[in-house]
Amino acid sequence: MGNLTISLDDAVIKQARVRAIQEGTSVSAKVREFLATYAQVNDQKRQAGQAILEAARQSQANRAGATWTRDGLHDRSAPPADQTASGAA
Q1: How does DSSP classify residue 72?
Q2: Which helix (H) or strand (E) holds 58?
Q3: Which residues of 76-86 are buried (b: 16+ CB within 10 A; e: fewer)?
Q4: To 10 degrees, the CA torsion angle through 24, 27, 33, 36?
Q5: In angstroms, rounded to a whole number, what is the distance separating the alpha carbons of residues 69 and 88?
Q6: What is the pLDDT of residue 84?
Q7: Under a CB-based contact definition with an 8 Å cutoff, are residues 20 and 27 in contact?
Q8: Around 57, how many Cα atoms within 13 Å sit in the side-chain half-sphere?
């Protein structure tokens, strides 16, 4: 395990030590935890993006090849297909 030297304001160090003690840990452990998470964020984002793309590939949605136009998507003149006349009172 490597060492890292950082410079911080004395008041911040004191507050961090108090909070770490309250949480039953150490400042070093909290910094280690933060840096591990910080270093892995790009991997997590990449994995999430890959999972979304894979889910889209496996999706059964729009298998009929339907297409839409911008005007058709924004047309408010007709009720949605799933509404029935019996729904009106």
Answers
A1: H
A2: helix 27-58
A3: eeeeeeeeeee
A4: -170
A5: 29
A6: 53
A7: yes
A8: 6
H or E element at residue 20? helix 10-22
Q: Is 89 a residue whose pLDDT tops 80?
A: no
Tokens of 78: 């007709």
Rounded to two decimals, the pTM is 0.49
* Widest CA span in the chain: 73
pLDDT in tens, 44-85: 888 899 999 999 888 888 777 788 888 888 888 766 666 555
Pick the residue with more confidence: 21 or 63? 21
Residue in the block written with tokens 């297909």: 81
